[in-house]
Amino acid sequence: MGAAAAVLTGMSLSPGATPAGADVGVGSDGTRVRVTGYRAGGDLHYGFSATADGGGVAMVCRELLESTGGMADSDIVTGGWPPLDPQRRALRRYWLECRRPDGSVVALADGGLGYLYADEVVDFDAEVRTLAERYVAEELGPSIDLRTSPPVGLVGIEQWFWVEGYDGAPVVSLHDVVGHRVELTLEPATVAWSFGDGSSSGLEGAAGLGRDATDGRSGGGESPVAHRYRDRSTSAGAPDGDYEVAVTIELSVRYTLDGAGPFDVEPPLSAAAAAPLVVREAQAVLHR
Question: Is residue 115 in some structural domain?
Answer without folding.
Answer: yes
